[in-house]
Write a structure and sequence with these properties.
The complex is a heterodimer of chains A (269) and B (284). Chain A is an all-alpha fold and 269 residues long. Chain A has one domain: MetI-like fold. Chain A is 78% helix and 0% strand. Chain A contains 11 helices and no strands. Chain B has one domain: MetI-like fold. Chain B is built from 13 helices and no strands. Classes of the chains: A mainly alpha (269), B mainly alpha (284). At the A-B interface, α1, α4, α5, α8 and α9 of A face α1, α2, α4, α7 and α8 of B. Chain A: It holds the Pfam family BPD_transp_1. Chain A: This is Nitrate ABC transporter permease.
């Protein structure tokens, strides 16, 4: 990475960019004169998106959705990492709760959406709860396996030097598990976005999910596509943001040669 | 730069799993029977906590009915054909979409993974598409395709095809440079190379992709059913909850969890059977 000359920098960029650019171009050309009701010209969709963002209430919807994701994911991270550290440290607890946690993770949280929203209401609170409920499991399980996967020699060294538990937690266990924790958060983020959309489509007065539902059911096709595109941008933007945070926090880890890294075996959807 | 740093690290499937037998003997730990007892008591503890929570009345019984009420509905549900019909509908939609994703995603991933140029050019596109929450396409699909089983299958397919594709690609790329160079210098013909080298070394990763997709397929199918009037487990949850039968709604949720959990166990079993030829402590 560091030994790149300027010429070598844009070449891979070009190699990665030509296909997406081609796809967008094809999309623009193919739909340019489209008179189809369901597939309006892509330029129309983008114009609608821009207009709704500037003059419509789309920014409010976006902020509502973003806030729910941030709160839900934040709660899930705190709870998941906290519980994961404890479960990962206590071997007996880890073995006893194994199947239980696997079951909890395998239960599709989307099935909880009607139950929670019909009983707790259509406000923001139940949605945050649902997002936290869905995204806590990958974080928790990854933290457990991250803590468990720390080299036993490291543990024993920390023990034999009688390093106090608080120091050990902050300087040994947490950094050791951090790569896995981040992998868990990355999975959790995609779950959080899905739950945001589902919970808002199911019942909500505001939010991006509500926007695409409303425009879809009133046959406002460009608006529906525009909202869908915005959700896509949101999903990608959040994952890039998370990656940036990961590089900032885990620079030491990614600078290691790949072979020295521990494999991330549990980052599954 | 932003582009070259968005490297994807798909789930590395294998190293830990391969090392498992060694780990188990090393860890020693409690015996099999004691472990089972521990796990059972953990399940029991959670059930007790659930019962206590429901009995304490902190949450209304429509939001969280007690475990006895929930499990009490199972014998009755098992006798109805609606229950099995719902399970069948969900599995049908999930399986069709999953199979389509496997048939398209695995070959495409293997081929693009074999050629560096193809992998590089598809990277950004796949990255963007992959992070797209497919369920958000539902309103669009409802407009275009209507509320039909095709909609469910299509959404499931789109949600499953990217994990399968990425893991297959990742697997095909995992051939070590040394082996690749050896094949080059011996001029191993392409089809032989594909069948004897790339395919076997990609299999663990492909299996991981399929396992991820299998879980996703059920999840997405249920998600679609919750939001539309398409029959299936998700729709039954909605109907039960709207009809005030919260216990029945929870029974369906537990059914969904059991399906997801069984898929996980089954695919882990299949993975182990398929990859038995691998030496357990293989390192690359």
């Amino acid at each position: 990475m560091s030994t790149r000359t300027p010429g070598a920098l844009w070449k891979p960029l070009l190699k990665q960019l030509w296909l997406p650019v081609l796809c967008v171009a094809v999309l623009l050309v193919a739909t340019a004169g489209s008179t189809s009701f369901y597939f309006p010209p892509a330029t129309d969709v983008l114009a609608t998106l821009w207009r709704e963002l500037l003059h419509g209430g789309l920014v409010g919807d976006l902020l509502f959705s973003l806030r729910n994701i941030a709160l839900g994911l934040g709660i899930a991270t705190v709870v998941g990492v906290g519980a994961g550290l404890v479960i990962g440290e206590v071997d007996l607890l880890r073995q006893a709760t194994g199947p239980l946690l696997d079951f909890a993770r395998a239960t599709p949280t989307v099935a909880f959406v009607p139950v929670i929203i019909l009983t707790l209401g259509i406000g923001s609170g139940p949605k945050v709860f649902l997002i936290a409920l869905g995204s806590v499991w990958p974080i928790l399980l990854n933290t457990v396996s991250g803590v468990h996967g720390i080299n036993p020699a490291v543990h024993e060294t920390a023990h034999s030097y009688r390093i106090p538990w608080r120091l050990r937690l902050l300087k040994v266990v947490l950094p050791g598990a951090l790569p896995q924790i981040f992998a868990g958060i990355r999975v959790a983020l995609s779950i959080a976005v899905v739950l945001m959309v589902v919970s808002e489509i199911y019942g909500s007065p505001v939010g991006l999910g509500n926007f695409i539902l409303q425009s879809g059911s009133s046959f406002a096709v460009p608006e529906t596509w525009a909202g869908t595109v915005l959700i896509g941008i949101l999903g990608y933007g959040l994952s890039v943001l998370l990656l940036a945070a990961e590089y900032a926090l885990l620079g030491w880890y990614h600078q290691r040669p790949p072979r020295a890294r521990r494999s991330l075996s549990r980052n599954e959807v | 730069m932003a582009i070259s740093t968005t490297d994807r690290r798909p789930a590395a499937p294998d190293r830990k799993r391969r090392a498992r037998p060694a780990r188990r003997t090393r860890a020693g730990g409690p015996g099999r029977r004691v472990l089972l007892l521990l796990q059972l008591s953990a399940v029991l503890a959670v059930l007790l906590l659930w019962a206590a929570l429901a009995a304490a009345g902190l949450v209304s019984s429509t939001a969280l009915p007690g475990p006895t009420a929930v499990f009490g509905t199972f014998p009755e549900l098992f006798g109805t054909s609606a229950y099995w019909q719902a399970v069948g509908d969900t599995l049908n939609g999930a399986l069709t979409g999953f199979l389509a994703a496997a048939v398209i995603g695995v070959p495409l991933g293997l081929v693009t993974g074999t050629y560096a140029a193809a992998e590089q050019s598809s990277r950004l596109l796949v990255d963007v598409l992959r992070s797209f929450p497919v369920i958000a396409l539902l309103p669009v699909f409802l407009l275009v395709l209507g509320s039909t089983p095709t909609t469910k299958t299509t959404v499931v397919f789109l949600a499953c095809v990217f994990p399968v594709f990425l893991q297959a690609q990742y697997g095909a790329r995992s051939v070590t440079p040394m082996i690749a160079e050896t094949m080059d210098s011996y001029r191993v013909p392409r089809h032989l190379r594909f069948r004897k080298v790339i395919l076997p070394s990609a299999t663990p990763s492909v299996m991981t992709g399929l396992r991820l997709a299998a879980t996703t397929s059920v999840l997405v199918a249920i998600g679609v059913e919750v939001l539309t009037t398409l029959p299936g487990i998700g729709h039954e949850v909605v109907l039960a909850q709207q009809g005030g039968a919260a216990a029945q709604a929870y029974a369906y949720i537990i059914t969904a969890g059991t399906i997801g959990y069984s898929i996980n166990l089954l695919s882990q079993f299949a993975e182990r059977r398929l990859l038995r030829w691998r030496p357990p402590a293989h390192t690359d």
